């Protein structure tokens, strides 16, 4: 379970229907492109994943609030590429919603999946 601190409160990042709709609508290619971007550590995708993962809190966080928290985290050396990779992978690739699809994508290349998983842990 991935977590994110915003406004001095820590929240679980959780996939919901609204977050899936938002995330899958970000890129041409939908969920498949989202998975690729999440695995690659794309910073804009990380912002989107954190933002969407907070929808369930119903606290009305704005994307700019999430970006500011991430900007502060990077400036304070609390957020780095390793954290971005782990969080993006944890929220997307290991979620109940996307996991089976990811497993199918790597079915013919289990070594690649092992390497990615080792990198994301």
UniProtKB/TrEMBL annotation:
Family annotation (InterPro entries): Phage_TAC_12
Pfam families: Phage_TAC_12
Official protein name in the record: Phage tail assembly chaperone protein, TAC
């Amino acid at each position: 379970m991935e977590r994110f601190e915003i406004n001095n409160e820590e929240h679980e990042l959780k996939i919901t229907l609204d977050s899936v709709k938002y995330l899958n609508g970000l890129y041409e290619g939908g969920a498949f492109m989202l998975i690729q971007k999440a695995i690659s550590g794309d910073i804009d995708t990380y912002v989107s994943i954190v933002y969407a993962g907070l929808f369930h809190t119903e606290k009305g966080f704005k994307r700019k609030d999430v970006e500011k928290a991430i900007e502060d985290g990077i400036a304070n050396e609390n957020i780095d590429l390793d954290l971005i990779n782990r969080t993006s992978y944890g929220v997307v690739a290991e979620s109940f919603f996307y996991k089976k699809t990811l497993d199918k994508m790597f079915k013919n290349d289990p070594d690649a999946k092992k390497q990615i998983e080792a990198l994301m842990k």
